[in-house]
Amino acid sequence: MSETTEIAVLEIKPEQAPALYVPNGLDGFLEQIRQQVNEVPDLTTAKGRARVASLAAQVSRSKTAVEKPGRDYLRHLKEAVKPAEAELRRWVTECDALRDEVRKPLTDWEDEQDRLKAEQQMLDWHTEALEMNIAFDKAAAEKFESDHEIALLLNDKFDREAAAAKEAAERQRIEYEEELKRLAENAARREVELRAQREREEAAHRESVLKAQAEQAERDRIAAEQRAQREAEEARQRAEREKQEAIEAEQRKATEAEQRRLAEEKRLADEKAKREANETHRKAIGTAVVKGLMAHAGLTREQAIVTLTALKDNKIPHTSINY
Predict the structure, then answer these.
(1) Residue 235 to residue 125: CA distance in whole angstroms
(2) Overall domain count for the chain
(3) Which range marks the domain in which residue 218 is found?
């Protein structure tokens, strides 16, 4: 692949999302990018290093091009689930109400049968009590008749005691009937209370199930939102790191360039200073030679300068000037 080749920009259309954002659905794109970055640039050159940075940046752009529509698709799925959850809750509530409405005639009939059964039981108890009372009265009457002649012979005290005994028997009969009635009423009331308790427990259970389902749905929704937020934050942090790394790389490049510039300026300044020092040194030696020629060889200044020039240019054999 040529170092100037660019990675093709990835594009995902909304209708492609269901087929791509599934397990291993993006492997084709990954392989495509791997093939496009299959280079080994020369890191010893500025061009090679720039190429590596460019390839990495292009991979990041491809990542964003696939990730952004994926996030949009995920948000769409979450929004699509909410109406289904609401409709399912409404369905359960409506079906429970319809079930109770359909069963109401049977429930009313069962309640009526229980009431009739209780009334019949009370009637049976009452009839049994009456029969017992009638038998009691008949036996008492027979005994009373049999003892009538004897009773006539007894005094008033015996009559009062017999009357008291009869009144006590009547009170016992009445108390027995009232006790039977009380027991029947208690049994019927207990049955009604038990049925009401069962209905309350069933309603509480239904409410508990619906509440648990709603809480689970809410937990799933919160978990999905938190996961999406985490992923978004991770993506933001990755982008920030990549941005910071790019900035730091540029800063390093700028720093290195500035260091090279300063080093070059120093080298040029050192060379200039060296040349200037050498020139000053050479001028000092030349001046001393000219003065020496004038003083010791009897030459004029112009003749001395001409002689110095000939010496510098090595035109006079076996002579030289040491700077």
Answers:
(1) 83
(2) 1
(3) 14-265
